[in-house]
Design a protein that fits this description.
553 residues; alpha/beta; 7-stranded mixed β-sheet; disordered N terminus
């Protein structure tokens, strides 16, 4: 993946004054690859132009131009500049602090939804482009002081002039994230040869760990809640690093089972062994067999570190033993440990699960058949072990092809999708290679330095993302929580994504994506969502940077 980025443009109209926002809306229709349409979002309204040209394919007769009716939105007040509807701090007092459930998704009821354009902060500028953005961003784009004051001594970030700089520090890597990742790679050689491709960083801070791994061929989902650390995920996305709002609390994360090759926690302070071990059981669910779990910080290296953790050596020894016992019961083995870093590996041996869970008194027990492993949209966490399905023999980390070969190898789980097979997968791959070529003719910015953060809002196999793999961008592949379960295929290819229901706001901040791509979303969700079409359209505007490109049906 080549790491470059670009600079969006802006448009100003006399009748509107300062800071206009433009969203180009490219329409995808039928089997035609040529689509057009521009959605203009301005500071005080957004207007969908009705001059959208549909270009017919060589086999079609006359195709009438696609007509889009103008849609106008009022602007939200300035207090909504960082509005995240389903993780809104103004609603926290409605929910309890037990297990930090207030930081989970709690979307407002329809009567309380804001359907308006989220304004940018005063002084907002087009984002700095990748790869420079990994190390700096405009202060006015993410104007947060608390995190700067609290974390500058740990070198998360520091403010200099009109920019935030990201030195790459962290609580557990005072010598910089690069040196820290080097230590982990020495413990996990599989990070060097393409075996490990996808990772999740729980409690990611400003995503320096995930940012460093991009140059090493590893694609990381950086996960953090909206909490007192303010806008960790917004900082990550402003830097051009994949990230999503989320927390392991009472509900499953929006990812399929057996998906990530590696999971990481650097002093994230998650109480892994409490509440029946449900937090670590969730890591087990989303980590593929043979995958690695990396933990640095308490209680690792407690014999030397306990004095700095405001605890006793006996308490830390007990915590470490509980953690080790829980991991052993889940068929994880301690792979390697050095200093503050410990690595466990999830077993790919079915016999381990059979032996460990054959005892009816085993704890945690095996989940019963009523627990769907991939159900991950408002699905409660349960204190039971999701074991790998025996019908899949080639999803373990040592069984799937290494990167980059795995990108185009037909995943075993393609059969989960209706009519899914090797031929359908190859056809989808070929189709998107062709379509992306046409997209780039219509939208020259695609593949250039102008577009970095991309979302495919209705993917199937991840073909759109695969066709763009050589470009300086990354793609968040979204699969409907009500549609065919194709997200495991996306992860088996070495790509990333999340489940989502487009009746609700996505788990991100405003102005965090450069391009939104829609293929068949209106048709697929028309009966459920698009009687509230205006809600989706306002979301499209809110998620985009000052200039963004959206391909739509």
């Amino acid at each position: 993946m080549r790491q470059k980025d670009g600079k969006p443009g802006s448009k100003q109209e006399k009748t509107l004054g300062v800071i206009s926002m433009t969203v180009m809306f490219v329409a995808l229709c039928g089997f035609s690859f040529y689509l057009g349409g521009i959605f203009c979002s301005e500071k005080n309204n957004m207007r969908a132009t009705d001059a959208v040209e549909a270009v017919q394919s060589s086999e079609d007769p006359v195709v009438a131009p696609l007509q889009i009716q103008p849609v106008k939105f009022n602007e939200c007040s300035s207090s909504f500049q960082d509005y995240t509807p389903c993780t809104d701090p103004r609603r926290w007092n409605k929910y309890g602090r037990h297990r930090l459930t207030l930081f989970e998704r709690h979307c407002p009821p329809p009567s309380e939804r804001e359907v308006c354009l989220v304004p940018p902060p005063d002084g907002y500028k087009p984002p700095i482009r990748w790869p420079t953005s990994r190390d700096q961003c405009w202060y006015r784009n993410v104007p947060y002081e608390w995190i700067n004051k609290q974390k500058s001594n740990q070198h998360w970030l520091k403010k200099e002039g009109d920019k935030f700089l990201f030195p790459g520090g962290g609580t557990m890597f005072p010598n910089g994230v690069g040196a820290y990742v080097d230590l982990i790679r020495d413990l996990i050689p599989e990070m060097k040869d393409g075996t490990v491709r996808t990772a999740i960083d729980t409690g990611c801070g400003v995503a320096s760990w995930g940012g460093d791994l991009l140059d090493r061929g590893i694609l990381t989902v950086s996960l953090a809640p909206r909490d007192n650390h303010e806008a960790q995920v917004q900082f990550a996305l402003e830097r051009g690093i994949p990230a999503i709002l989320g927390i392991i609390s009472t509900q499953r994360l929006p990812f399929p089972s057996n998906s990530f090759d590696m999971a990481h926690c650097s002093r994230c302070l998650i109480p892994w062994t409490e509440f029946g071990g449900v937090y670590l059981l969730e890591i087990n669910r989303i980590l593929r067999p043979g995958g690695f779990w990396v933990l640095s910080g308490p209680p690792v290296n407690y014999k030397r570190r306990w004095r700095g953790w405001n605890t006793t050596m006996e308490e830390q020894r007990s915590d470490y033993q509980k953690l080790q016992d829980l991991l052993s019961s889940m068929c994880f083995e301690l792979y390697k440990q050095k200093g503050d870093i410990a690595v466990w590996r999830k077993s790919s041996d079915f016999d381990c699960y059979d032996n460990n869970l054959s005892n009816p008194d085993a704890y945690p027990p095996k989940c019963d058949d009523s627990v769907e492993p991939d159900a991950a949209w408002y699905t409660p966490l349960r204190p039971c072990i999701v074991t790998p399905a025996r019908k899949y023999t080639n999803i373990a980390l040592d069984a799937i092809p290494k990167w980059p070969e795995r990108l185009h190898a037909t995943p075993e789980r393609v059969s989960v999708v209706h009519n899914g097979n090797a031929n359908a997968f190859k056809h989808d791959d070929s189709k998107w290679k062709s379509r992306v070529k046409h997209y780039k003719k219509l939208l020259p910015a695609l593949g250039s330095e102008e577009i970095r953060n991309v979302m495919d809002m209705n993917t199937v196999y991840g073909g759109f993302a695969a066709a763009l793999i050589e470009d300086p961008l990354w793609v968040m592949n979204v699969v409907s929580s009500y549609g065919a379960n194709s997200l495991p295929i996306v992860y088996d290819r070495g790509l990333i994504g999340a489940y989502h229901d487009w009746c609700e706001a996505f788990s991100t901040y405003p102005r965090t994506y450069d391009l939104l791509h829609l293929d068949g979303l209106f048709t697929a969700e028309s009966q459920r969502v698009f009687h509230g079409y205006e809600l989706l359209q306002s979301q499209v505007d809110d998620y985009c940077h000052e200039s963004a490109c959206v391909s739509a049906q």
